[in-house]
Design brief:
The protein is mostly beta strands. It has one domain: Sandwich (Immunoglobulin-like). It has 1 helix and 10 strands, in the order E-E-E-H-E-E-E-E-E-E-E. A 5-stranded antiparallel β-sheet has the order 4-5-2-7-8. The chain has a 3-stranded antiparallel β-sheet with strand order 1-6-3. The longest helix has 4 residues. The protein starts with 7 loop residues before the first strand and ends with a strand.
Length: about 140
């Protein structure tokens, strides 16, 4: 979900065995240092808060099988809007992997403000009186 200061951010990571044989996999997730653990340490096999790294192990996943892990992190209220929160996830091992190109993803999530349906922005011209006011 969106990263908003003072709120939780939900993540779901999915690991799939697209090969023809059973395979074991280790999923490693690294989050931005600004994010704080809410349910990550409870769902992960290991979690190191100092390196912001969590791992999960999926032994002997059958061919065509997928496993998903879901967890929440919290973004403290003091994080500035527009800040970038880098993250990454990687699956190992890559040996004998039919599709090794899809084993890693890196991203950067932008911190946004809360949505307020009553927030109005006006664009006005040089006319002060009698001119039009446009609301997007």
């Amino acid at each position: 979900g969106p990263a908003r200061p003072g709120f939780e951010v939900s993540y779901t990571l999915t690991v799939c065995n697209l090969g023809e044989q059973p395979a074991s996999a280790t999923l490693t997730f690294v989050h931005a240092p600004e994010l704080e653990d809410v349910s990550l340490s409870a769902s992960a096999l290991t979690y190191d808060p100092d390196s912001q790294t969590a791992t999960w192990f999926f032994p002997d996943m059958p061919s065509g099988n997928c496993q998903a892990v879901s967890f929440k992190l919290s973004l403290p209220a003091g994080v500035a809007l527009g800040a970038q929160l880098p993250g990454s996830a990687a699956v190992t091992p890559v040996s004998n992997d039919v599709f090794p190109y899809n084993n890693q993803i890196n991203w950067s999530q932008t911190v946004v403000g809360s949505f307020d349906p009553n927030d109005k922005t006006s664009f006005t011209g040089e006319d002060q009186f009698g001119g039009a006011i446009y609301f997007p």
